[in-house]
Amino acid sequence: MSSQTLSTSSARIELERLYENEVARVHGFLLARCGSRALAEDLTAEVFINAAQRFAQGRQMEVTTAWLISVAKRRLVDHWRSSERQGRRLEKLRLERSADQALDLEDDRVLAALESLSTRQRAALTLRYLDEHSVSEVADALGATYQATESLLARARTSFERAYGANS
């Protein structure tokens, strides 16, 4: 086959044949493990997108049933990890919001704790928790990356808690 494998009709026919022969097997494999028809369909689509990419690279000989199932397993594990991280983030947010609601902004200890922070930390905490902006919005406002802003917020919360406790 030429380097234009996916653009040739024989490669497209080969990919279509692979899809017809294996889509039910891959979908069934995923459905049995995740229990959600919609998720199984999404992950199955991702598996066949990977297969199409292999075909486009001229590597269709690598795409076997075992390869498809292996990709399906990785996609499912990636989904589980992502869901777990999202669950932890939501729980952390729930705890943060309940802690925020307990603070009285007219309390001198709260104000003193905020004033003890660096300008950047105070700005991050204020934007995130008092003004209720998302981390992405805080990052944009501070001209930082999302990850740097999460780190800044974590350090700011620790500094605030330490300063607030010292003022008790």
Please describe what this structure looks like:
There is one protein chain. The chain has helices at 9-34, 37-56, 65-102, 108-115, 119-130, 135-142, 146-166. The protein has 168 residues and is mainly α. The protein is elongated, with a radius of gyration of 25 Å. The protein contains 7 helices and no strands. 79% of the residues lie in helices and 0% in strands. The protein has 2 domains: 5-85, Orthogonal Bundle (Rna Polymerase Sigma Factor, Chain: A); 103-166, Winged helix-like DNA-binding domain superfamily/Winged helix DNA-binding domain (Arc Repressor Mutant, subunit A), CATH 1.10.10.10.
Outline of this structure?
With 168 residues, the protein is mainly alpha-helical.
Q: Domain count, please report it.
A: 2
CATH topology-level name of the largest domain: Rna Polymerase Sigma Factor, Chain: A
Q: Count up the helices.
A: 7
Mean pLDDT: 82
Radius of gyration: 25 Å
Helix content: over 70%
Number of strands: 0
Instruction: Provide the CATH top-level class of the largest domain.
Output: Mainly Alpha
Q: Mind describing the biggest β-sheet?
A: none
Stretches where pLDDT is under 50 for at least 5 consecutive residues are 1-6
Give the H and E element order.
HHHHHHH
Alpha-beta classification: mainly alpha
| General shape | elongated
Strand content: under 5%
CATH architecture tag of the largest domain? Orthogonal Bundle
Query: What separation lies between the terminal Cα atoms?
Result: 75 Å
